[in-house]
């Protein structure tokens, strides 16, 4: 029997156990469809019944029943805090079985490409920012014993993402010598930038809040892929959304949305920064976040020879170059990075 066939049988048996526990209405399975998963070892299946559909996640089995996967912990916390996340209908940690509501296949990215006006785009993003802010407003003191409050975007973590890009983008993708004085000078500046960002006030951040990690169901935006949440500046999420490499938002809308977040949310967290100071921090966060994204695109290509993300590298690089061009204190680093990129 092929592995996929045995998995389907396992999914069917586990789903029948869910029904036997009276957690769902007794129903008839009509089809089980394997879904395209993420980069992890998790596998996903959609179960079609005669009345509705569900999604089953097969994760690594948990030997200790009291030790739940990070996804389940954060789902429980976010759901408690009124953040719209997928509902968990049943679980069996011993087999790695998690039964979730079916959110469908429409992502924020897919939906935003069908807008009819700039105003519609603005309102769509404004809604995503308000949803994001519900994560940032979580009182982490209530969860001081949970693992995620012990993780943070400190200097080491932020800079490790820069080192990641050095390895997979500069060295492996571009084939550059990363031991040169120019690369060393560039990374000295990036380290100082990460140090500055790391000393900003911290909230709970999603870590990967972009157009592919929001689902749309019945007009409602739902947050997914939140298992890597940790403490950090809220700008990490704001930049992830508005400087998304998958979709280029209208520039005037972006400026208005940045100002909206500053006035509605950020000023309540940090009253010491005026809008100009906030914008400088936003740009520094953009350099870090987008440069990290370039590393991720290069890694996916190096690891899986997946060409789908290569097309975003050029757009992401131009975004970084443009930001650096507007800051005199990054003139030297912009020239170094440009010479490294355009020489290939």
Structural account:
- There is one protein chain.
- With 344 residues, the chain is of the alpha+beta class.
- A five-stranded antiparallel β-sheet has the order 1-2-3-5-4, with helices on one face.
- It contains eleven helices and nine strands.
- Strand 4 and strand 5 (97-101) form a beta hairpin.
- The chain has two domains: 3-101, 2-Layer Sandwich (Phosphorylase Kinase, domain 1), CATH 3.30.200; 108-342, Aminoglycoside 3'-phosphotransferase, Chain: A, domain 2 (Alpha-Beta Complex).
What's the short story on this structure?
By secondary structure, this protein is α+β, with helices and mostly antiparallel strands. It contains eleven helices and nine strands. It has two domains: 3-101, Phosphorylase Kinase, domain 1; 108-342, Alpha-Beta Complex (Aminoglycoside 3'-phosphotransferase, Chain: A, domain 2), CATH 3.90.1200.
């Amino acid at each position: 029997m092929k592995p996929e066939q045995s998995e389907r049988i396992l999914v069917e048996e586990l789903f029948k156990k869910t029904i036997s526990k009276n957690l769902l209405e007794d129903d008839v399975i009509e089809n089980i469809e394997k879904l395209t998963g993420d980069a992890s070892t998790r596998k996903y299946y959609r179960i079609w019944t005669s009345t509705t559909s569900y999604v089953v996640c097969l994760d690594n089995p948990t030997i200790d029943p009291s030790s739940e996967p990070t996804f389940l912990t954060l789902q429980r916390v976010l759901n408690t805090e009124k953040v719209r996340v997928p509902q968990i209908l049943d679980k069996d940690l011993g087999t790695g079985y998690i039964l979730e509501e079916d959110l469908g296949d429409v992502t924020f990215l897919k939906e935003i490409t069908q807008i009819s006006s700039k105003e519609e785009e603005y309102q769509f993003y404004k809604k995503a920012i308000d949803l994001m802010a519900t994560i940032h407003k979580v009182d982490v003191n209530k969860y001081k014993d949970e693992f995620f409050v012990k993780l943070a975007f400190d200097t080491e973590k932020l800079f490790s993402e820069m080192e990641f890009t050095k390895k997979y983008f500069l060295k492996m993708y571009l084939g550059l010598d990363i031991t040169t004085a120019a690369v060393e000078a560039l990374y000295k500046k990036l380290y100082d930038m990460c140090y500055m960002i790391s000393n900003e006030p911290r909230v709970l951040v999603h870590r990967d809040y972009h157009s592919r990690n929001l689902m749309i169901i019945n007009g409602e935006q739902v947050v997914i892929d939140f298992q890597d949440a940790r403490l950090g500046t809220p700008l990490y999420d704001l930049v992830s959304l508005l400087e998304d490499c998958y979709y280029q938002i209208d520039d005037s809308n972006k400026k208005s949305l940045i100002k909206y977040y500053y006035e509605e949310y950020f000023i309540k967290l940090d009253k010491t920064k005026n809008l100009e100071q906030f914008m400088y921090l936003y740009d520094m966060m953009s350099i870090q976040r987008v440069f990290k994204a370039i590393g991720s695109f290069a890694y996916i290509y190096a690891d899986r020879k997946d060409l789908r993300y290569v097309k975003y590298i050029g757009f992401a690089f131009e975004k970084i170059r443009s930001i650096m061009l507007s800051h005199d204190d990054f003139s030297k680093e912009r020239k170094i990075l440009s010479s490294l990129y355009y020489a290939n």
